[in-house]
Design goal:
Mean pLDDT: 86
Number of domains: 1
Number of helices: 2
Number of strands: 10
Distance between the termini: 49 Å
Largest sheet: 8 strands, antiparallel
Strand content: over 45%
Structural class: mainly beta
Order of helices and strands: EEEEEEHEEEEH
CATH topology: Pnp Oxidase, Chain A
Low-confidence stretches: none
CATH class: Mainly Beta
Radius of gyration: 20 Å
Length: 162
């Protein structure tokens, strides 16, 4: 049975406990990729790729025509309080009308703020970029991704006796 892809029907962004529904027109989530190296190891018939773990920074981009004072206030704080955002989205399956709740919870530092070009009687396009050190993705309450770049993984903790 073929299933049509679900589509985004609504979303709300929560910044520091304040619901910002309808403010952000677009949210771009991080791209995940792994650092790989092709090696021809002794005893192998052909080269294989070795995984060296995640590569690249995790960034979330927010686009809005509104000026967001909470982000501007967080940007001025000198690394003492990481920014926390919580994105709640509703995705609807067009065939059976089933709704799925998608959530992104991220913590990081506001890396970039573009206040945009301002012209009379035209909408201003603003962009905010959060460089994440924590990222969680949940669907219907089930955690699918949980990355904390500042904490060693469980195997490393056991090896180090932490």
């Amino acid at each position: 049975m073929n299933v049509l892809p679900s589509h985004l029907t609504n979303m709300a962004l929560i910044i520091r406990g304040n619901i910002r529904a309808g403010i952000f027109e677009e949210v771009t989530l991080p791209t995940f990729q792994r650092k790989m190296e092709t090696r021809h190891l002794p005893g192998t018939s052909h080269p294989i790729e070795i995984d060296y773990g995640p590569e690249g920074a995790m960034e979330i981009s927010l686009s809005s025509s509104e000026l967001e004072p909470l982000i501007l206030q967080d940007y001025g704080v000198c690394n003492s309080r990481p920014a926390r955002i919580h994105l709640k989205s509703a995705f609807k399956q067009p065939v059976n009308c089933q709704l799925d709740k998608h959530e992104v919870i991220a913590k990081g530092i506001w890396k970039q703020i573009e206040l945009g070009s301002q012209k009379m009687k035209e909408q201003v396009n603003r962009k905010y970029v959060l460089s994440c050190h924590e990222f969680r993705y949940l669907v219907n309450g089930k955690e699918l991704i949980n990355i904390n770049a500042l904490a060693p993984d469980e195997q490393e903790r056991q090896l180090l006796g932490l």
